[in-house]
């Protein structure tokens, strides 16, 4: 008999990866995504061709809600992006009761992020 509850949520993604593309996409984030994928960890990251607009698309919000963990790559310009901050707010809201958020400080001191 399985010890898991039949009402336990089934996640589409293990990890939602939030990052500032111009800071980390072509280096750190691509490498991190590849390592997670190689380990069989289903990870959502936005498409570089994703339409940038004033608001985050409903599909992106859905991916956040369908992810078990939030992995936030906090970089030099992360907090300057309205898009990133909107993602972060949604991640924290969704993760508050049922999931985990893990920060990665990339080329930025944690004390700077606190400000």
TrEMBL record:
Domain TIR: where? 11-115
Q: Tell me any Pfam family this protein matches.
A: TIR
Q: What is this protein called?
A: Putative TIR domain-containing protein
PANTHER family linked to this entry: SIMILAR TO PART OF DISEASE RESISTANCE PROTEIN-RELATED (PTHR32009:SF121), TMV RESISTANCE PROTEIN N-LIKE (PTHR32009)
The Gene Ontology biological process annotation of the record reads:
signal transduction
Q: Which UniProt keywords apply?
A: NAD
> Which InterPro entries does UniProt cross-reference here?
TIR_dom, Toll_tir_struct_dom_sf
Q: Does the keyword Acetylation apply?
A: no
SMART domains according to UniProt:
TIR (SM00255)
